[in-house]
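## retry 2 of 3
previous attempt timed out at serialization; input unchanged, resubmitting
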Amino acid sequence: MIDNIKTRDYEGSMGKWTRLSGIIGGVLLWAALAGGGQAADIKVLEGNPGRSGETMDLKPLLSQDRTTVVDFYSPYCLPCVQMAPLLDELAKRKPETAFVKLNINRPQVRGIDWKSPLTQQYRVKSVPYFMIFKPEGKLLAEGPEAQKIIIDWLQRAELLPKSGK
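## retry succeeded, writing output
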């Protein structure tokens, strides 16, 4: 987990690659949808494409019939970048759960954008930051509590080693 004090060590280290990966991700999403792919084929939904860092209502992103995990991330956060493929695989193995990721960074900001309207709206103080909602839209867990649930799911899916408790 990265908090806003530790970010200076690697701010800006991802500049060109982040923009390139965003472009590639957008092209792949477009290709999947335009090429006859269906929304069900996409396991982790990008919840704010073209609106990264802006305030938003989470309600339209929540699944009506499944638990929903909302992942607040920054492309400048190394743990967030490392977590992304694990969440993609977890989404495949846990179809009863919907996964949505929200980029907290405004496009013009390099480094983790702690002052973005989105981070202010949801009081995000560290990333990755998770919120888990029940199917009826009620908040089940957020922050460290939600992170523990995600880690447990990853361990049960054998995507992370179990900690020696």
